[in-house]
Amino acid sequence: MSGDGSLDRLKRDGRIVVVGASLAGLRGAETLREEGFTGSLTMIGDEPYEPYDRPPLSKQILLGRATADHTLLPRRRAIDAEWRLGVPATGLDMAARRVRLGDGDEVEYDRLLIATGVRARPWPKEDEAELDGVFVLRTRDDAYALERSLAQSPRRVLVIGAGFTGSEIASACRERGIAVTVAERAAAPLVGALGGVIGAVAAELHHENGVDLRCGVMVTGLEGDSTGRVRTAHFSDGNSVEADVVVVALGATRNTEWLAGSGLGAGPRGIACDAGCRAFDIRGIVTDDIYVAGDVARSPHPLFGYQFLSLEHWGNAVSQAETAAHNMMSESADRRPHIWVPAFWSSQFGVNIKSVGVPTMGTEIVIAQGALNERRFTGVYGYQGRVIGAVTFDQSKWLQFYQQQIETTAPFPPPFPTVDRRLEGQHPRDADFPDPSVPTHGPTVTLSGYAPDDRRLTFTPARH
Amino acid sequence: MRLVVDLNRCQGYAQCAFLAPDVFAMHGEESLLYNPLAEEERHEEVARAVAACPVQAILVEADPSAEAPRTRPGGDR
Ligand SMILES: Cc1cc2nc3c(=O)[nH]c(=O)nc-3n(C[C@H](O)[C@H](O)[C@H](O)COP(=O)(O)OP(=O)(O)OC[C@H]3O[C@@H](n4cnc5c(N)ncnc54)[C@H](O)[C@@H]3O)c2cc1C
Ligand code: SF4
Questions:
Q1: Of A305, A334, A363, which marks where a domain is finished?
Q2: Residue among A48, A51, A117, A109 at smallest CA distance from A79
Q3: Among B27, B32, B58, which is best to mutate for testing ligand 2, by the most ligand atoms less than 8 A from CB?
Q4: Which domain of life is it from (chain B) (predicted)?
C-alpha cells in the first residue's frame, strides 16, 4: 500500500465503519478526523444513546450525585459521522467488506474498527435472573434501574462477586446507609486482580464499613416471592440471606457473537489483534482492513513478553482506539504499536485504589511504602526478578515512579531504599494469587500466550 | 457542559475541587468525584479548574454545539 496513492484515496474519500459506539469507538473516530480523514464515517451502536462514560455508573450515579443520563462523553472534536444507534451489527462479510445490521440494512466499508466491548455476565439461571430486584451493572439503563431501587431504601442488598464493580456497589450502598451482604467465591475481595495480600486489606475495608462479607462461598440459588420479586439467596455453605435487591457482579463476556462464522479470529476471549491493532482472522493471518480496540481486544504487549492482554480498563480503550485510528491512516512504516502500560483506578470505601502494570503476573509483592494496616501504601509486584506491577491505596503519587520501573524492566525487589519503607517492606512475600485454573470474579487483566523471560527488552513508552 | 476526568492521570491534587467546588469534590483522602454534566453557569470555574490541573486530566467538551448526531431515517431512534 505504500506510496501508490491508495492511502491518500482512503483518507480523502474512503468509507470507515465503527461498530460499537462507546468510549473506544468515539475516541477512535475523533482520531481518524484528527489524522485528516475526510471520507464517510458511520458509527453503529446497539445502545440507543450517544457514547457515554461507564466508570461513574458504579460511583457518582449509585451515590445519587449525578443521574445515569448525565455521563455522555465530552467530544474532543466534531466527527461528522452518520450515527446508526439502537441497531446492532449482526454479521460481517469479510470478502465483500460489509457489515450486516439488525434492521436488515448492510453497510460497506473500506476500513472497519470493531469496538464492541463486553457486557455483564448475567446470573446463570435464567428464571432466577428474571426475578424483580435482580440487576447487573454495565449500561446506563442498568445504572438507572439499580439506582432507582436503591433510592427505595431496600432492607438489604446482596452483591454477588467482590471484584472492583461489586466492591464499588457495596461501598455505595453502605454510604447510603443500606445494609449489604457481599458473597465472593474466592478467599477475599479483589484477589483475582490484586492477589491475597491486598485482598486481605480489601476484606478489612468491607468489614470496617459494615459490609456483611461472606468469602469462600457461592450463591447457589435465588428465590422469589409469589409476586416474582427476589426475596432469599441461598449459599453453598448452607446459609441463606434475605435481600430485596441482588446485584450480579460476576465479570463480563466479550461481545463477539455477531462475528461468528465470519472468519475473523473472534471468540469468548475477545478478538485477537497484532500490536498495531489489526485483527487476526481464524487462520492466524493478520487482516489489512479490520482493526480492534478497547475491552473486546486481545493484543500482544512487548513489555510483557508479547503475551496477549485483554484489559477491561478505561485508559486502555482510549489509547488503543487512538493507535488503531492512527495506524488506519498511516503507511506501514509510520504505524505504531499499542504499548500502553496497563493502568486503572477504583474508588471504594473512600479509598483511591490505583494500579499500573500487570499485577496478576506477579508472584511476589513487597510493600515498598506505607503500611497495609494504615490503608495507605504502595505494593510492588515482582515476576522473575523484575518489577511487573504496582498498586497504591491512597498513595497515587508513587505510581508514576513504579510505572517507569516497569517500563525499564527494573529489578525486583527494588534494591534502593525508598521513602517511608517500613519493616513489612523489607522482604517480598508471596503475592498469593488464586490458582489461574480456578475461575474467580473480576480479574481485570487476563493472560495467555508466552511467559515473559526476556529481560533485555528495551522499551520506550508512547507519550501523547 | 459535559466533562470527564482521566482518573489514571489525576493525582488528587484537589486544585479543581478548590476552584470549582460545585463540580469537583474530594471523596476520602484522594479520590475525586465530579459531576459529569456540570451546569453551564459553572463554565468559568470549570475553565479555571481545567487550566489549574497540574496533569491536564480534565476534558471539557470543546464546543457545546459540536454535534447533534446526524440521524438517518429508519436507522436511528
Ligand atoms: C460500572 C463500571 C465501572 C467501571 N469503572 C472503571 C474504573 O473505575 N476504572 C477503569 O479503568 N475502568 C472502569 N470501567 C471499565 C471501562 O468503562 C471500560 O474499559 C470501557 O467502557 C471500555 O470501552 P469500550 O468502548 O471498549 O467498550 P464498551 O464501553 O463496552 O462499549 C462497547 C459498545 O459496543 C456496543 N455493542 C456491542 N455489541 C454490538 C453490536 N453487535 N453492534 C453494535 N454495537 C454493539 C455495546 O452495547 C457498547 O455500547 C468500568 C466499567 C463499568 C461498567
Ligand atoms: S486538579 Fe487535576 S489532578 Fe488535581 S484533583 Fe483535580 S483533576 Fe485531579
A1: A334
A2: A51
A3: B32
A4: Bacteria
Burial class (CB in 10 A: 0-12, 13-18, 19+), A177: exposed
> Comparing C-alpha atoms, which of A173, A152, A17 is closest to residue A81?
A17
Residue A454 has pLDDT above 90, yes or no: no
Contact: A314, B8; criterion CB under 8 Å: yes
Residue A23 within any structural domain of the chain:
yes
The mean pLDDT of chain A is: 92
Q: Of A187, A216, A250, which marks where a domain is finished?
A: A250
pLDDT tens digits along A163-175: 999 999 999 999 9
Is the shortest distance between the CB of A109 and ligand 1 below 6 Å? no
Query: How many CB atoms neighbour CB A151 within 10 A?
Result: 11
For an interface test with B, give the residue of A54, A75, A171, A401 to mutate (most B CBs within 10 A).
A75
Question: Using a 6 Å cutoff on CB, does residue A345 contact ligand 1?
Answer: yes
Position A436 scores a pLDDT of: 60
Q: Is residue A187 part of a domain?
A: yes
Same domain, A161 and A258: no
Asked whether residue A444 is assigned to any structural domain, the reply reads no
